[in-house]
Amino acid sequence: MAIKLTLKHTDRILFCGSKWWGDPDMPESMQYPAIEVNEDGERYDYPHTFICQINCEDIAAFDPEGRLPHEGMLYFFAALDKWLGYDSPTENGGGEWPRGHFVVKYARSVNFETFQSCMMVDDEGQALTEREMEIVFSECADDERCI
User: Fold this and answer.
1) Closest residue by Cα to residue 22 from 37, 7, 36, 35
2) Is residue 109 classed as helix, strand or coil in its secondary structure?
3) 46-80 per-residue burial string, b: 16 or more CB within 10 A, e: under 16
4) Residue of higher predicted confidence among 83 and 28
5) Strands 115-117 and 133-140
6) Distance (Å) of CA 89 to CA 8, 80, 84, 86, 99
7) Given the DSSP bridges, would you call strands 49-55 and 19-20 parallel, antiparallel or unpaired?
8) What would the pLDDT profile of 110-139 be if each residue is shown by its tens digit?
9) What is the mean pLDDT of residues 52-68?
């Protein structure tokens, strides 16, 4: 069985919930992923774009085979600023992306007391992330078009 993801705007606080865009809620010990850039002889780390986080408890009911973790949090990041229309020192075309341009992280458990929102802000303190959307999961038969 496939799992359908539906995105919806909400005014609810999605801290430690399943969400698309926004800011990831990660354990204090987890490092925000970045890619090393070498531009004109200068090396620096450029942060990946946060795509989504999935609270694994939200998908457990749709994974009877146990192929996915049923607790903890999955995080997805990629070097895709260019695809979103932003200036970026990295560029990825279609097809296979270079190693390190896409990162998946996993926290084995979710702890509201030790997790923190990792906010990306510009020099004026303005958020650099897209507006977060709640992810709602539902069943989708393998032969069904789930878009």
Assistant:
1) 7
2) coil
3) eebbbbbbbbbebbeeeeeeeeebeeebbbbbbbb
4) 28
5) unpaired
6) 31, 10, 13, 10, 16
7) antiparallel
8) 999 999 999 988 889 988 888 999 999 999
9) 96
